[in-house]
Amino acid sequence: MDFLHSQLGKVQQHLAFVAVDPINWKFYVQSIAWTVTLFESYLLIRQYPLYSKTEPPPALATHISAADFEKSQKYGKDKAKFALLSGLYKQVLDTVMLHFGFYAWSWTAAGSLMARFGYGSEYETVQSIGFVLLLFFGSSLPTLPLSVRLPVYLSPDLLKGWALAVVLISPFLWAFLRVFNWAGDRFVPWLMAFFLAFQLIMVIVYPISRLFKDGELRTRIESLAGKLKFPLTHLYEIDGSKRSSHSNAYFFGLPWSKHIVIFDTLIQQSQPDEVEAVLAHELGHWYYAHPTKMLAVSQIHVFTIFALFPAFLHAPPVLTSFDFPKSVAAQPPTLVAFLLFQMILTPLEAFVSIGMHAVSRHFEWEADRFACELQDKLDDEKMNDMGDRLGRALIALHVKNLSTVWVDWLYSAYHHSHPTLTERLKGLESFQSQRRKKTT
What we know:
Layout: H1 2-14, H2 25-47, H3 66-99, H4 102-116, H5 124-140, H6 156-183, H7 187-205, E1 210-211, H8 216-227, E2 232-238, E3 249-254, E4 257-263, H9 264-269, H10 272-287, H11 290-308, H12 310-313, H13 316-321, H14 326-329, H15 334-344, H16 346-372, H17 374-378, H18 386-400, H19 409-415, H20 421-439
Parallel strand pairs: 2-4
Antiparallel strand pairs: 1-2, 3-4
Helix pairs in contact: 2-3, 4-5, 5-6, 6-7, 7-11, 8-10, 10-16, 10-18, 11-16, 16-18, 16-20, 18-20
GO cellular component, one term: endoplasmic reticulum membrane
Protein name: CAAX prenyl protease
Membrane topology: Multi-pass membrane protein
């Protein structure tokens, strides 16, 4: 542990200028934020002409009807227009809030509000929670006009979402600050442990709709899980149809106890053998330990953030740059410093996102190949068409979800964690061809 802290100390020495140099951090954040927004707008402009194509890609020509393709193109065009306008609108709002010192105002307002309930400035944790909630509601209200339908502005779902955010944010921030204050200057490993524990707890208590009913599909899934020695504890069905027509299936849980979740829309839109193929793909993620690997990558990411943060924790120039009064900047509140630090990290986060998507797409290829090779892994002739079944299921999912079938490569690299449908179908054909050559 001492070695870790000595190395972290060297990092802080290199970043010592942050605490003394009068850098215009607000201008830096504004410039970077607009650069990212304009780049994302450029990607949308690159993608937009593809929605005017009148025919699907050759690989999909025999799998998607003209009506479904036209509907998908129209849906994609509408989404692109909305994304372009809403992205620019939100960035203008962020610019206005930063320019006029909304963050500093929120901290002062939270302090004044807490004082009315008898909490003075010495209650930094209470004021920090109030500060974050003010930011949350203050930034949410101006975006309500982006809703497609007026009734959603004050709909029960929206109010429930806000209430849930308050219920979740408050205890999380309280625990975060308690760990931070307890650990002192050696907070990095302890906050790492806190975040990891929080992720595991969310996995355990994640709410599911209902247990899956008996039937052919349940028999298929339990049989496949048993052959692969997948530690299946429960099989659940979730009411995706109440929210949208999007379909999915996934697993979660601890290493010795896993749960499979299937959207009811996937069951309705696909045959049992196709749903089994989708689950074979998901079990491929388990077989290659993809969730564990992604968790390790995310922990490295979190560690990097925490390792850089101490230099910004005791940096009055950072807070004064964002219009905080000198009395507050002299002893920066932990949560304020952390949120400002997160904004400064925007360029790094953009690169991290691209890298994470690249890793995720690689894992998707591996899971697809796993499904295609199940016949050989399990020596079961009934699974010789698993790749074909998975292909049919993917096509059905894309058609029902109105997913885009023409995708610009740069747009996909930046936004997508999965390969495109055309890429996956070609990949499945390639995996099956390679397997046949090995067996002949």
